Amino acid sequence: MKLNSVVNRYIFKELIPPFAMNLLFFIFVFLMRQILEITNVIVNYQVSLTAFLLMLTYSMPYFLAYIIPMSVMMSVLLTFLRLSSDNEIVALKASGISIYRLLPPVIVFSLFSALLTGYMAIYGIPWGQQSYKQMALNVVQSNFNVGLKERQFNDSFDGVMFYVSKIDFKDNSLGDIYIEDQRNARFSTTIVSPKGRIFNGEDRLSFILSLYNGVINQVNLESRAVHSTRFDTYDLQLDLKNAVKNISKKKIKEKDMRIEELIAFLKTAKTKSKKYYSVWIELHKKFSIPFACIALGILAVPLGVQSSSTRKSAGLGIGLIAFLIYYLLLSAGLVLSEAGKISPVLGMWMPNIIMGGLGIYLLVRTANDNPVEIFNRMNQFAGKIIRNFFRIRHTD
Predict the structure, then answer these.
(1) Is the domain of 135 the same as that of 7?
(2) pTM (2 decimals)?
(3) End position of a domain, from candidates 248, 283, 301
């Protein structure tokens, strides 16, 4: 009993370093796709470093809900891969400790991770999404040119649409400006100007667009009369209140909703629309993804033990393949559930059932010293990829 307790503490401690390393690595990978956008926001849109860090913080819960289960699987896989490669598993079996008695630290570690993932999914994601939205409102109110983008139509204002070809955020100057003003029911006004500049208004909810050397074309919608006027300087004042109101009134996405909001929607929904199924999916996803920590953690134990002859890099590849299969199952369940082909319950829990069931099957085979042929094929495939990779590097 004492030996088993020591082994459990030893394995639990061994799980922590690879978990931390994988967590940091996957966070970096997930954020890589945002580097260009983040750099553009900081350099060109004049957003402060504090605002950038807050944006990063608000987006982290969504990433962590998927990264933590992946990191759990990789940490368990790498830990048992090392134990098996160093013949520690063989030594433990010789001491009378079976594979089943090595599961408690894995289960406890997976449970802690599942609770953390559940907290991120249930509370973290809605908090992050709503906080990000509120921050966007504050940015729009304080500096509207953050929302301007080159070569894109902007219809944030009721009755006014404008298009800017070039923007210089250093001095807030604009180039090749096109504005269509339909705020007057009797007249349709089009303004074209080769250059202009943005000035902040007296309050935070307005700004002045100064245009230079342009043309105003005004059409009387009743008489169809057209008037054209050239100007040297023309100031157009735009009110941000409607723009801010439009942002704040945008429909709340399912992932932004708290559990009580999801349940309230399902209780009041009268028809089984696409929104209805999406809410059901999101509700079950908040619980099924945390449970993936346990299912993938169990699967990683036999994967690590039976892959003892592979390199750690190949073991990493095996783990990534397994998680890719899980993600494909989750995506398939999501698509089929949204289409109403299968129940959202089955669609969101099917990946856990399949991967967890596979883990239990492989665990029983491993405990009975019955190797699975698929491991030999996966090891050969991973080894072949590694050899080719190093051969290419040597050739270069």
Answers:
(1) yes
(2) 0.70
(3) 248
